[in-house]
Design brief:
By secondary structure, the chain is α/β, with parallel strands linked by helices. Helix content is 40%, strand content 15%. The chain contains 14 helices and twelve strands. The protein has helices spanning 20-26, 36-53, 66-77, 92-102, 120-128, 153-162, 184-187, 213-218, 231-235, 250-267, 269-291, 319-331, 363-380, 388-395; strands at residues 9-11, 58-63, 83-88, 106-111, 135-141, 168-172, 191-195, 206-211, 297-298, 310-314, 333-337, 352-356. It has a seven-stranded mixed beta sheet with strand order 2-8-7-6-5-3-4, with helices on both faces. The longest helix is centred in the C-terminal third of the chain and has 23 residues, at 269-291. The relative contact order is 0.16. Mean pLDDT is 95; it is low at 399-406.
């Protein structure tokens, strides 16, 4: 089989491709955890992370995955019996709400389905009806990894303000950080969550929680806080070890330093976001052409509401699974499953697949993935339109200035 040689390309929405530079940075002996080297490194990382989300607030680093970030936010903000409002636009906001519910928080949900973003008018109306302020916070995602929708966080913040409601705004940026622009302070978010294994181009294992003074004050009386999740000890430690509630994740910190160096200090965030948008549009151009001659369609029809990090696609059962199996066996390409896409007619979500296009990616990787998908469609006999690769190649072309894509 062809896939038995050469590197595979895991084009799932995380863990994403890890640059060799990041792998090499992690491949070193353990440092002296009591030295100033590690303290200085961590301080610089926190400054860069805060710059990445555009906040003057605080940043806590946890040895955890994204689910750990969920629990950290709930533990620091709420008490048993508090009420939160979850805005569900796919799968992951509901998962966050499930963590809150398991910890004793009352969870109310507005479900916008798997193919829509948040309806801000509906949100505002719901909050206006909460005249006694039972709802302590609104929980949503910037990008849902399953549906690939991208929510307008500014509009959600304005809807909360328009309702005259004091609820905090909590945003999960796990799938979008360093792929789609995010401006925490400017957009009115009080708490933001992220993790290391997607746009930050690192292995799983680090979770980040950013919070402002409003969130800090709101959570001072929280009775769910535990020593491990306590964010106050992490951002204002008496001793360095308290930043991580124990031994620092040394290898991951070295890798994070290298990834932030690449993203912020070398490529630059404006170029990072432009690259992700350009490559996302290349994928969208191909999918659009394929869909003109067959049943293939975007899960999120409106391109202005799609993530620049992941694209969910509906091929119809059983072709999503057939395609994934073929490209994995024959092309060394791994595509994302149709997560959360099960229906009564397609209980195993065999009709959907996802392309992850986040982090350490460039045109030849995306065009190679699309060519492999084209070959897979041909092999499984899938009806589709032509010209997909040409359309994608045109999107990956030169900028108007004549300079190569950064």
């Amino acid at each position: 089989m062809y896939a038995s040689s050469g590197r595979t390309y895991t084009a799932i929405p995380g863990p994403s491709v890890i640059p060799d530079r990041v792998l090499n940075a992690m491949h070193r002996a353990s440092p002296d955890i009591y030295s100033t080297e590690l303290r200085d490194l961590t301080s610089g990382l926190i400054d860069d992370l805060k710059g990445l989300v555009r906040t003057k607030g605080e940043a806590a680093i946890y040895i955890a995955n994204g689910h750990g970030a969920w629990e950290a936010s709930v533990s620091n903000l709420f008490s048993r019996g508090d009420t939160v409002l979850v805005l569900e636009t796919g799968l992951f906001a509901n998962g966050w709400g499930g963590f809150a519910s398991a910890l004793g928080v009352n969870v109310e949900t507005i479900d916008f389905g798997m193919r829509s973003d948040v309806d801000c008018e509906r949100l505002a109306e719901t909050l206006k009806q909460d005249s006694d302020g039972r709802i302590k916070a609104v929980l949503t995602v910037h990008v849902d990894t399953a549906s690939s929708v991208r929510n307008d966080i500014t509009a959600i913040s304005k809807a909360i303000q328009a309702a005259g409601h004091p609820a905090l705004l909590l945003v999960d940026c796990i799938a979008s950080l360093a792929c789609d622009d995010f401006q925490m302070d400017e957009w009115g978010a009080d708490v933001v969550l992220a993790a290391s294994q997607k746009g930050l181009m690192l292995a799983p294992g680090l979770a980040f929680v950013f919070f402002n003074q409003r969130a800090l004050q709101a959570g001072r009386s929280a009775d769910l806080r535990t020593p491990y999740w306590d964010w106050q000890r992490r951002v204002d430690p008496d001793e360095f070890y308290q930043r991580f509630c124990g031994t620092a994740p040394t290898s991951l910190l070295f890798g994070l330093h290298e990834s932030l160096q690449m993203l912020i200090h070398e490529e630059g965030l404006a170029s990072v976001f432009e690259r992700h948008e350009r490559l996302a549009r290349a994928i969208w151009s191909a999918v659009g052409m394929w869909g003109q001659g067959g049943p293939l369609e975007f899960n999120i029809p409106d391109p202005s509401k799609r993530s620049h990090a992941v694209t969910a696609i509906r091929a119809g059962p059983p072709y999503g699974s057939k395609l994934r199996d073929w490209v994995s066996r024959n092309a060394g390409l791994n595509l994302g499953i149709g997560l959360g896409m099960s229906t009564p007619e397609d209980s195993e979500a065999t009709g959907s697949f996802r392309i992850g296009h986040m982090g350490h990616i460039n045109p030849h990787m995306i065009l190679g993935a699309l060519a492999s998908i084209e070959a897979g469609f041909e092999a499984i006999g899938y009806r589709r339109g032509r010209g997909a690769l040409e359309a994608a190649a045109a999107e990956c072309g030169l900028k108007d200035s004549g300079q190569p894509l950064a």
